[in-house]
Amino acid sequence: MLHAVILAGGSGTRFWPQSRRALPKQFLRFGSDRTLLQETVDRCRVIVPIERTWIVTGESHLAETVRQLPELASEHVLVEPCGRNTAPCIGLAAMQLLAVDPDAVMLVMPADHVIRTAEQFQRTVEQAAAVVANAPQSLVLFGATPSYPATGFGYIQRGAELSDQPGAFRVAAFREKPDLATAQRYVAAKEYFWNCGLFVWRAATILEQIELHSPEIGTRLKRLQAAIGTAKWNETLAAEFPQMPSISIDYAVLERADSVAVVPAAFEWDDVGSWQALARLLPADADGNAISGRFCGLNSTGCIVRSSEEHLVATFGVRDLIIVQTPDATLVADNRDENSLRQLIAELERRGLTGFL
Hints:
Blueprint: E1 2-7, H1 36-44, E2 53-58, H2 62-68, E3 77-80, H3 86-100, E4 105-110, E5 114-116, H4 118-134, E6 139-144, E7 155-161, E8 169-175, H5 180-189, E9 192-202, H6 203-213, H7 215-227, H8 233-240, H9 249-254, E10 260-264, E11 268-270, H10 278-281, E12 290-292, E13 294-298, E14 304-306, E15 312-316, E16 321-325, E17 330-334, H11 340-350
Parallel strand pairs: 1-2, 1-4, 2-3, 6-10, 12-14, 13-15, 14-16
Antiparallel strand pairs: 4-9, 5-11, 6-9, 7-8, 7-9, 8-10, 16-17
């Protein structure tokens, strides 16, 4: 049976000041009346009922997760005692699924990506699930066809087409985030996909692969597995989970495993990794500005503006700025410098302004 596992952790720093540590990106709305978390659950409903939907989140995000998803059973919200990246997180979910369904197949996805459209997404999931049904040891990734030479995404190089699953391919190699020239070469080659961070596999298979390739995680997961449904669960989770290495499932397993396949995504995908993503998600005005909220600009071009309908942002004679207004903080930044926001967050922390983070 197919289960949806939605990863809903995160610190919220890349969308400061609107996102905060207690309210990261997945709880925000981007051009919709539903949050990214709610939209992720919504697009799964046709192929995975809410009764087989699971959320993995942190303690500090539990209350908001429950508030936004009141239809979700409380036992389907899995709480990490601390952030440990995707490998321990996915292992934790896989154990819980096996406890209720020994044949569970996992559809794993982040809670904070934008995917259009739901029908195309569902069709791609069905194709990936068919690969797993035919070859139960398969680990299936989703790859989006690059629409531009992105330097902020990892890439998957496809290999030979699977003989028994037309349209699915073996993974030949994983490529780190490239420089611009390399990204342009990847796009021209037409054999590379963006790595979407969405996966389909059997819960039993991914646990076996974690134990094989990352035994330091696998050993502690086995101790946790023995405590499921007992009075020692919380105590064991608090003792074992923080001791696991913080590592992604890509590094821990996928780049080391055999039987890794990629299915081309039939849908539009964006990981909404920074404020620059709004320029891709929102229609531009006549001056090339991407606007969300109330705005009036004169001689202003190439700006990204995020405000409320109650607060007017007005500009004159500026270009290529990010302007984000919130009730207690306003960001004004160069929209060509994607990485300096991290430096700004660190400086706020250094100056003791943690109440704004």
